[in-house]
Design goal:
heterodimer; A: alpha/beta; Rossmann fold; 2 domains; five-stranded mixed beta sheet; 12 helices; B: alpha/beta; 13 helices; about 45% helix; about 10% strand; binds thiamine diphosphate
């Protein structure tokens, strides 16, 4: 194992999968000559040539649809959306075509596509470029939604997604791209639909995924200094969701806080809290607490943006509410 | 311009012509019986009939190799029958039965026959156009000499999906043929009300690809024009946009009485019926006798009757089918089912 950035881990996964399977190709805006808008595909055009790494026009509906059609014919397209904000233009091909073709055809068709790109806010990009989309895609039966939070998971899950026979929505994060972590070399697969306990603890379960994982762990460290021992469950995949690991953890700690960076209404946390309250009603001493971003479009000003975002401090506050601890 | 290549149809042998004739009659009769079964409530939901437009599906099929790919919209009964899917499983799909082409999960708008290279059957106007782009892209990627033919209505050309896909198809010279079945109405809206450019084929000029029209009420003309485009695509020379000028004899779907068209207009168009047209050609060229053609009608009548019986007697899908085919391997824990 060596230390890689999240970006390098993704690049390595793409590189290995392009090398392994000639049916894998990468397409998207700026993925080739520009090395990717966020440099995730750095060097891949040079290494694999323009048949395997293809710059597309700015036609999200069109090139995502191309990928869906090519996947239907047995290829393994990896379609990069520059950010998930822009993929709204392609939603029809994702939700109406990719997610449903297997069912509508009675199992005759399948769609092994991976659509990937950064999700969520970076800094000061304002409302149209600062949104979290995982609950929206997790809503559709037929899709798998993967949101890794560490470089190792990014590599292992991206490789699994590319090999998966169903359409995978793979969500990265601009803020995670430069973060570092130990990443296994060579063949390393993380199963889709398996959560991972990133910190063991006995007092309260904190559920997170994607970039929120780092925030949750930071909050847990702050709480540890006050003698509160949190267990951090990294879901890694929102659909399918590893209910077993989640429920086991909450049954062990007796309390649950869900951290989600996006908006509070009808988000993934709402579903998770439903699962937890049904499975753990008998042992919960307080309601499931959801820590989220503010219910507003993201403001530009630093002064306001800070207020709109979930933070380690808000996790600390949430856990204290869940545990009935006065600060 | 309309492309005229008359010699091609002249070269069709008796067998090919009778096959086309049989397909036209089969589609027409199938659709008539669908209408009847719909009123008996054996068929439900949206059901878009193909009466009048048969020449397009049949001409297209004749121009394609069996291993070429076809994809279309929800008005898809004609195409799946033209590809050679037996009418029984198609009717069973419309009835929602387990023996349907999609196990009863797709219905009228979502007919597939992958072994016969019929890829649906899609319900969102224009959405199959990027899909066709991807299908043709995959052929090019794999180095296959198979062509993808994509059908859509004239209302679909106002979707962004059409423009995005045609730009990329032209840019990357994929082996695709885009055929607009211009039946002049998108539901109740005439093309003159929805489109700044009513000659659909002219839109090809925006992507610098050939744009041609054909008489979509004439099976042989459609065959000739589509054949040229398919072979062009197969030679690696890129896509073509074809406007097949046609007309639907019935309403948009089974729930549409069609009050937005005058009776005179519909009567006028019915005179262009593709079935008598091909019949006259076959007889004038002495490729078959009247009795032989009549015989085809009788056989088709029985075949469709048999399809209805098959659909009627077929079982409903098992309740256990509800959760299959969503993912390759089901993702839900047992308890979610309950
Ligand atoms: C994106 C979308 N918008 C609206 C509809 C509803 N709708 C179904 S068919 C249709 C008319 C389409 O006309 P056209 O493309 O010319 O095909 P035709 O029905 O004449 O074969 C409409 C508006 C739809 N299915 N999809």
């Amino acid at each position: 194992m060596r230390e890689l950035t999240f970006r390098e881990a993704l690049n390595e996964a793409l590189d290995e999968e392009l090398a392994r399977d000639p049916n894998v190709f990468l397409m998207g805006e700026e993925v080739g000559a520009y090395d990717g808008a966020y440099k995730v595909s750095r060097g891949l055009l040079k290494k694999y040539g323009p048949k395997r790494v293809i710059d597309s026009p700015i036609s999200e509906l069109g090139f995502v649809g191309l990928g869906v059609g090519a996947a239907m014919m047995g290829l393994r397209p990896v379609i990069e959306v520059m950010t998930w904000n822009f993929a709204l233009l392609a939603l029809d091909q994702i939700a109406n075509t990719a997610a449903k073709m297997r069912y509508m055809s009675g199992g005759a068709l399948s769609c092994p596509i991976t659509i990937r790109g950064p999700n969520g806010a970076a800094h000061s990009l304002a409302a149209q470029h600062s949104q979290w989309f995982e609950p929206q895609y997790a809503y559709y039966p037929g899709l798998k939604v993967i949101v890794p939070g560490t470089p190792a998971d990014a590599k292992g899950l991206l490789k699994s997604a590319i090999r998966d026979p169903d359409p995978c929505i793979f969500m990265e994060s601009e803020l995670l791209y430069p973060t570092k972590g130990l990443v296994p070399e060579g063949e390393y697969l993380v199963p889709i639909g398996k959560a991972d306990i990133k910190r063991e603890g006995k007092d309260c379960t904190v559920v997170a995924w994607g970039r929120a994982l780092g925030i949750a762990l930071e909050g847990a460290e702050m709480l540890a200094k006050e003698g509160i021992d949190c267990e951090v469950v990294d879901l890694r995949t929102i659909r399918p969701l590893d209910e077993e690991t989640l429920v086991q953890s909450v049954r062990k700690t007796g309390a649950c806080v869900i951290l989600e960076e996006g908006w509070p209404y009808f988000n993934a946390g709402a579903q998770i809290s439903d699962i937890v309250q049904r499975a753990c009603f008998d042992i919960l001493d307080s309601p499931v607490i959801r820590v989220t971003g503010a219910d507003v479009p993201m403001p530009y000003s630093k002064a306001l943006e800070k207020l709109a975002r979930a933070s380690a401090e808000s996790v600390v506050a949430g856990v204290k509410v869940a545990l009935n601890v006065r600060s | 311009m309309a492309q005229r290549t008359n010699s091609l149809a002249e070269k069709l042998d008796r067998e090919a012509l009778l096959k086309m004739y049989r397909q036209l009659v089969l589609i027409r009769r199938f659709e008539e019986r669908c209408a009847q079964q719909y009123s008996l409530q054996k068929i439900a939901g949206f059901c878009h009939l193909y009466n009048g437009q048969e020449a397009v599906a049949v001409g297209v099929e004749a121009a394609m190799r069996p291993d070429d790919y076809l994809v279309t919209a929800y008005r898809d009964h004609g195409q799946v029958l033209a590809r050679g899917t037996p009418p029984g499983p198609v009717m069973a799909e419309l009835f929602g039965k387990a023996t349907g082409v999609a196990k009863g999960k797709g219905g009228s708008m979502h007919l597939y026959d992958i072994p016969r290279n019929m890829y649906g059957g899609w319900g969102i106007v224009g959405a199959q156009i990027p899909l066709a782009l991807g299908m043709a892209y995959a052929s090019k990627y794999k180095g296959e000499d198979r062509v993808t033919v994509c059908l859509f209505g004239e209302a679909a050309v106002n979707q962004g999906a059409f423009h995005e896909a045609l730009n990329m198809a032209a840019l990357w010279k994929v082996p695709a043929v885009f055929i607009c079945e211009n039946n002049r109405y998108g539901m109740g809206t005439p093309i003159t009300v929805s489109s700044a450019v009513t000659d659909v084929y002219k839109r090809a000029s925006a992507y610098d690809i050939p744009g041609v029209w054909c008489d979509g009420m004439d099976t042989l003309h459609t065959y000739e024009v589509v054949y040229e485009a398919v072979e062009r695509a197969r030679r690696g020379e890129g896509p073509t946009l074809i406007e097949a000028r046609t007309y639907r004899f019935r309403g948009h779907s089974m729930s549409d009485p069609g009050t937005y068209r005058t009776r005179e207009e519909v009567e006028e168009e019915r005179k262009k019926d593709p079935i008598p047209k091909l019949r006259a050609f076959i007889l004038s060229k002495k490729r078959a006798k009247e009795e032989e053609l009549d015989q085809i009608h009788e056989e088709v009548e029985k075949e469709v009757e048999e399809a209805i019986r098959f659909a009627d007697e077929s079982p409903w899908p098992e309740p256990s089918e509800l959760y299959t085919d969503v993912y390759v391997d089901p993702i839900w824990p047992e308890k979610v089912h309950a």
